[in-house]
């Protein structure tokens, strides 16, 4: 890792303001925040490594609730325990809370404004690009780790959801069973 973690009070404030900033300026859903969290905590601060980030995001995806909040919670916990998890969660939920409160107050005005509608439609293209980059980054990360099975399951899951219209829960269960069997087979081959 690049940098040592600072003293507790500096660590807590950095966790809070990092998650607050990421949450406040990220539009398009939870998967958009993933590469930004990676950039901040892995590349810029160097407080966690690539594998820990991938593991945290994997757990965040399978946990109930928004991936952005779950990811922040897990990164905060990894960095500073329970208090870090609480601080990271607070930082990640405050901006959407205030934005939703503001939007709901002015909903009719926003809904009828052609400029805001056009801006939102334009952001959809950017969100699609960021999500696609995240998928590619995760796939290359798994490829570097030798996760051929993970890459296969990711591609097969895409085909099953998008083209065959399978339910996501079914795909999740099938992937879990395949991964469990694969780990048991590989585990029995190790000395």
TL;DR of this structure?
This protein has a domain at 8-107. The protein is 83% helix and 0% strand.
- pLDDT below 50 for ≥5 consecutive residues: which ranges? none
C-alpha geometry: globular
Number of helices: 8
Estimate percent helicity. Answer: over 70%
Overall pLDDT: 84
Q: Total strand count, please?
A: 0
**Terminal Cα span:** 31 Å
- SSE run: HHHHHHHH
Largest sheet: none
Radius of gyration: 19 Å
Task: Briefly note the structural class of the backbone.
Answer: mainly alpha
Fraction in beta strands:
under 5%
Attribute tags:
191 residues; 8 helices; single chain; mainly alpha
Describe this structure in words.
The chain is 83% helix and 0% strand. The chain has eight helices and no strands. The longest helix is centred in the middle third of the chain and has 39 residues, at 67-105. The two termini are 31 Å apart.
List the helices and strands and how they pair.
Elements: H1 8-24, H2 30-44, H3 50-62, H4 67-105, H5 107-112, H6 114-144, H7 148-162, H8 168-189
Helix pairs in contact: 1-2, 1-4, 2-4, 2-6, 3-4, 7-8
């Amino acid at each position: 890792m690049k940098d040592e973690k600072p003293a507790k009070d500096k660590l807590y404030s950095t966790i809070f303001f990092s998650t607050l900033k990421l949450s406040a300026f990220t539009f398009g859903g939870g998967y958009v925040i993933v590469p930004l969290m990676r950039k901040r905590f892995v590349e810029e601060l160097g407080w966690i490594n690539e594998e820990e980030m991938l593991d945290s995001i994997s757990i965040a995806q399978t946990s109930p609730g928004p991936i952005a909040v779950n990811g922040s919670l897990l990164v905060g916990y990894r960095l500073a325990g329970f208090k870090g998890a609480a601080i990271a969660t607070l930082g990640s939920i405050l901006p959407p809370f205030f934005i939703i409160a503001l939007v709901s107050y002015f909903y009719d005005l926003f809904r009828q404004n052609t400029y805001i509608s056009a801006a939102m439609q334009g952001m959809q293209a950017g969100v699609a690009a960021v999500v696609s980059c995240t998928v590619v980054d995760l796939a290359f990360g798994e490829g570097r780790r030798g996760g051929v099975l993970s890459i296969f399951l990711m591609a097969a899951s895409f085909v099953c959801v998008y083209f065959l219209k399978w339910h996501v829960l079914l795909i999740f269960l099938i992937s879990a069973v395949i991964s469990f069997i694969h780990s048991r087979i590989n585990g029995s081959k190790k000395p």
